[in-house]
Amino acid sequence: MAQNEFWQGNKAIAMGAIAAGCRFFGGYPITPSTEIMETMSEELPKLGGKFMQMEDEIGGIASAIGASIAGKKTMTASSGPGISLKQELLGYAYIAEIPIVLANVQRGGPSTGLPTKISQADVMQAKWGPNGDHGTIAYAPCSIQDCYEITIKAFNSAERYRQPVIILADEVLGHMREKITIPDPSSYTIVDRKKPTASPDEFVPYRADENGVPPMAAFGDGYRWHVTGLTTNEWGFPTNEAPDIDLKANRILTKINRFRDDIVEYTEDYMEDAEVAVFSYGSVYRSALRAIRVLREEGVKVGHFRPITLWPFPDKEIAELSKKVKTIIVPELNAGQMVLEVERAAAGRCEVIGKSLINGELYKPAEIMSFIKEVA
Fold first, then answer.
1. pLDDT of residue 7
2. Helices (H), the chain
3. Which one of 56, 199, 255, 368 is CB 3.0 to 4.6 Å from 212, fit for a cystine?
4. How far is 37 from 40, CA to CA, in rounded Å?
5. Strand, coil or helix: what is 298?
């Protein structure tokens, strides 16, 4: 049965991971994500899972990749410079097609920056952090309830598409507490990676199925396959052959592009008659929605578009939105990262105004109200 709790966002992420079937966590403590690690250290052993505090952030993601290859659902978490340290091995997981979930509880930067202050400045790092081309899936929760439910989505996507998936939380979400309803497990779907049906002698490790994703055998299951950060052929061995390279490079992109409409999620509020739209995500959504509710009571025709998936970006949906409103306002806690994507998708059909805040504070509803009043 569903039950109510009063949880911190970081705990909700950890418990959502466990509900999704995560049984291994490898990481390193760093503000403001440490409570994810602490919760995992307490809860995983109760379920026969494994928790490892590694010597650094690189070891944290390396251990998660290794445990995933061994057949477990795995997770790592970090913030700020710890996320930067994980990028090389995150790229390894993309090219080797290893499902893991990475939670990034964003803080101010660059470098050590603002360890205890909020930021949304890692959204482009989530998309382009590792070198090379790859298909990115990144979710942005906006509440403690979201932290739990989106973590389950992240694991399902990692398992379904056999790749890393990123949760882009932020310091306010990580540390705030509010009521959360833990849903009955029968009310949501849990996805597990597809296992090979071929015999070990017939198994081709990176031969994709009809959905463009290769089944994944676990080390120890009797199947042999080679894992490397080099570009490989279907057998998992390094290749310099252009057809093999083209096949691999395009497949790790198209398996996301092909199912883009299944992955992209968003919500709209008060958009039926809106002439102005606010585009915001994460904790900023909470301030924006409060501002919009107040202004709607005053007769201002303003609505809200919230991307749940930041990557893939909801460009088709923003294109449709831009045909209906005269202005889109994008308040975000960075120097203007996602506003560029909104401008690209709107393609000049309406005005797009970016508003940046990079002082470590969260927007107040009154500040967003003033932005809306300037153009309404």
1. 98
2. 9-20, 34-43, 57-69, 80-96, 123-128, 144-161, 171-175, 242-257, 260-263, 283-297, 315-322, 338-346, 365-375
3. 255
4. 5
5. coil
